[in-house]
Give the backbone structure.
Amino acid sequence: MSRTKRASLAKETVRIMEDGGYTLDDGRMIDIREHIVDSLARTDLVRPDEFGDLIAPECIKQATKFDVRNETTLTAAERLVVERKLDGVLCLNFASAKNPGGGFLGGSQAQEESLARSSALVKTLESKWEYYEVHRS
């Protein structure tokens, strides 16, 4: 996919977040406002002095299995939920410390930009602007 196409998709994603939904080709409206509100309510900024509170007292000892695939982060997450029936799947965002969504508006292509084009991630990141202010100074 070209940089221009990725930038166009990024602009469409921003419009969808602002509108709170989108319309399918068959005319059906998909309303995502409730999901965005829920995501915003559950978004936390963890400051460096708060990390100690998050450390688990004991790790679960289980063998690690590596599975290398050529797929997006969200495709992998969906596969884990659907195929393996896993609950509570998390995705690590290899994020920009200075720009929510990295360079997704300009059509950049890395993991964070892919997540930003495919979700309302940027809206949740922007809700914790303090993080970016610290890293921009």
